[in-house]
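Hypothesis: this fold can be encoded by more than one sequence.
Test: take the structure tokens below, design a sequence, compare later.
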């Protein structure tokens, strides 16, 4: 395998300027957006251009639906405001299918009383790639910068189920390190040279640890914890890491694990409906607006 170029470094000032960028991508939930908004920013919440968001969590928590929320908010805003903002969707497990994207776009347009032509216009600006194995995944990372050169209107890249083809038992240590460095280099290049934001979803894996915090086998004192499957070595300096989980009452929560700059929020509650992530409504507001039905709640 050929040697990888070292990703360019960035100064603290450049990180701050990037985090304060004017245009920002929204999830559709003000609560989730607050986790991605610098505390020094007075307005324009959400994920800035040229930054990376990793959405982590257990199965069924809504990682794919949350990523889809970013996709549709970006595309509908572009269509309604007549701006250039296309999206590349990379589906590694088949969860973020074209059918799901289209059907959710139709529901979005219906719920917001938008023209019937809006979903078609939204989907026309979404590029879709299905990754079925590790060879296609490696090829994708090698060719992504040149592909973006040929598609300058793409401003957001969404990689759903990033770890689907990177199971720990499949590769030896050197191969794993190569893949992690390839991912880090590519995503850093995309952010710094193309001003493109990247959203990745990863499923937390269950690992056993002993009382001293070291990896363990099945023993009486072993503790099972959910951990990021790829660790931290592939993460660049512009990454916001958010873990989605269910609390003890079964409600969805989001926690900011790390960020390049201080954020407005670190822990929020959110809901999931047919359009994606949304905020909890005030009970008094709900009582006044009973005639405005919310979309039915759905799982990922």
């Amino acid at each position: 395998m050929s040697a990888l170029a070292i990703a360019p470094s960035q100064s603290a000032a450049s990180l701050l300027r990037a985090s304060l960028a004017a245009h920002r991508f929204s999830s559709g939930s003000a609560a989730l957006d607050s986790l991605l908004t610098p505390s020094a920013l007075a307005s324009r919440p959400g994920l800035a251009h040229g930054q990376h968001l990793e959405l982590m969590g257990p199965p069924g928590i809504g990682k794919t639906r949350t990523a889809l929320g970013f996709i549709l908010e970006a595309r509908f805003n572009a269509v309604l405001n007549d701006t250039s903002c296309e999206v590349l969707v990379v589906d590694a497990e088949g969860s973020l299918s074209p059918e799901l994207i289209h059907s959710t776009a139709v529901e979005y347009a219906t719920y917001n009383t938008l023209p019937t032509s809006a979903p078609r216009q939204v989907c026309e600006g979404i590029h879709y790639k299905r990754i079925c194995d590790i060879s296609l995944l490696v090829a994708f990372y090698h060719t992504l910068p040149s592909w973006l050169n040929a598609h300058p209107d793409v401003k957001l890249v969404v990689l759903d189920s990033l770890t689907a083809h990177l199971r720990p038992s499949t590769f030896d240590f050197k191969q794993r390190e190569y893949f992690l460095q390839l991912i880090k280099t590519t995503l850093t290049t995309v952010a710094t040279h193309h001003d493109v934001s990247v959203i990745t979803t990863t499923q937390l894996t269950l690992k056993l640890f002993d009382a001293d915090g070291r990896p363990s086998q099945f023993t009486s004192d072993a503790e099972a914890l959910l951990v990021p499957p790829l660790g931290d070595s592939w993460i660049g300096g512009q990454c916001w890491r958010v873990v989605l989980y269910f609390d003890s009452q079964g409600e969805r929560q989001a926690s900011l694990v790390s960020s390049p700059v201080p954020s407005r929020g670190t822990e929020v509650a959110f809901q999931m409906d047919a359009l994606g992530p949304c905020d909890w409504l005030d009970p008094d507001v709900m009582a006044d607006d009973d005639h405005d039905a919310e979309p039915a709640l759905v799982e990922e």
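DSSP finds eight helices and 14 strands in the chain. Confidence is low (pLDDT under 50) at residues 1-8, 15-21, 289-300.
Hypothesis status: open.
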